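Tokens as discussed.
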């Protein structure tokens, strides 16, 4: 198989209907809308309702992404779900999605790198497509962190939200695609942001439940400081690997944890804040889902057109962080089901134009 680039041909997201406004937390803990908004930029976030879970939200996002790509689930080769809040320890959430959408010949596995999971999953799927191992992949970031929030801890419960975002990645002869991916980690800082119990180190028992050890614990200040530095480093490295100048980036889509982190990253990079996509005010920190949801909204708002360079950058528990430069491909205007010889010729011509364009 000839070497191909991986391009995003479909995208979709799901946000649960239940809106939790800052004022809703005033009834639970000693906090207020002003503090939350000034310190985080968050106004509201979504919480999954009864019967909703990471896999159900991931499935909704996946269906939208497949519809946009005009790709049948049965033609999928691979499903990767990036999540740190899976439905079960196992089976993988990706397998639940595979079954729900009827992707009968697809491989499926999860990737867990906390808020960096989507960027990690995208990097793996890209590598597999470029290597010719798979033709296409459904890459999903999905989280239900509300189920791991200690509603008596004001320093964490106000930060996180639920949701899912998905993209379809396909091999293409077009010159556009994922141009670089940088993944980094520092496991020595794991306990600055983690869920202490429920795994093999501290299995669930009455004492772990009584000690509220099944909820997210975070040393916010230290996470903040390292997030800014690491995101800047990863962004610079991804740009350099892709041989792309910062000035050529049309849109920076950072992980949506805190508007002050995003401002600080843009400032340190000397990148114009108007070109940074921000929707944390409406969703809070949705961890692995934040970048794909933001990507979908950026497209919906007409902020990306074919050929635009996009910089994704993430940071999360682990610690993990990473960045990716990609050139936006976007919606294709051909229908696979009725692909005529003329359509195929037109597509080939489009790819050829793409290929000679940079010459
Ligand atoms: O997605 C993975 C990466 N995660 C992140 O990037 C999160 C990074 N961290 C942050 O975004 C910020 O550190 C927080 C938003 C979590 C906290 O903001 P901060 O400016 O670092 O506040 P702080 O932790 O230094 O706390 C300042 C004060 C403390 O009171 P005292 O000790 O000064 O009296 C806190 O107890 O604010 C208090 N505080 C609150 N007050 C009202 C903490 N949470 C709240 C709250 N409402 N919800």
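Sequence:
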């Amino acid at each position: 198989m000839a070497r191909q680039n991986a391009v995003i041909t479909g995208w979709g997201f799901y946000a649960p209907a239940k809106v939790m406004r800052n004022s809703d937390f005033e009834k639970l803990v000693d906090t207020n809308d002003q503090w939350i908004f000034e310190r985080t930029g968050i106004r509201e976030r979504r919480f999954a309702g009864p019967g909703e879970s990471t896999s159900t939200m991931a499935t909704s996002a996946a269906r939208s992404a497949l519809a946009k790509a005009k790709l049948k689930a049965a033609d999928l080769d691979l499903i990767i779900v990036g999540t740190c809040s899976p439905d079960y320890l196992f089976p993988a959430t990706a397998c639940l999605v595979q079954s729900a959408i009827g992707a009968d010949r697809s491989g499926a596995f999860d990737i867990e790198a906390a808020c960096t999971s989507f960027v990690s999953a995208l990097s793996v799927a890209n590598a597999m497509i470029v290597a010719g191992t798979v033709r296409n992949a459904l890459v999903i970031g999905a989280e239900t962190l509300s189920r791991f929030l200690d509603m008596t801890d004001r320093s964490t419960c106000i930060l996180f939200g639920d949701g899912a975002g998905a993209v379809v990645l396909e091999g293409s002869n077009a010159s556009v695609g994922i141009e670089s991916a940088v993944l980094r980690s520092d496991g020595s800082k794991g306990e600055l942001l983690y869920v202490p119990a429920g795994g093999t180190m501290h299995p669930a028992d009455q004492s772990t439940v009584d000690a509220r050890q099944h909820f997210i614990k975070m040393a916010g200040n230290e996470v903040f400081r390292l997030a800014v530095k690491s995101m800047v480093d990863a962004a610079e490295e991804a740009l350099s690997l892709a041989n792309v100048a910062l000035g050529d980036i049309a849109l920076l889509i950072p992980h949506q944890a805190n508007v002050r982190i995003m401002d600080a990253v843009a400032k340190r990079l000397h990148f114009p804040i108007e070109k940074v996509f921000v929707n944390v005010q409406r969703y809070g920190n949705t961890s692995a889902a934040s970048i794909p949801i933001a990507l979908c909204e950026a497209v919906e708002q007409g902020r990306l057109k074919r050929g635009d360079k996009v910089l994704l950058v993430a940071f999360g528990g682990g610690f993990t962080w990473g960045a990716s430069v990609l050139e936006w491909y976007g919606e294709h205007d051909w229908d696979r089901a009725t692909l005529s010889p003329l359509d195929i010729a037109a597509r080939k011509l489009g790819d050829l134009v793409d290929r000679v364009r940079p010459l």
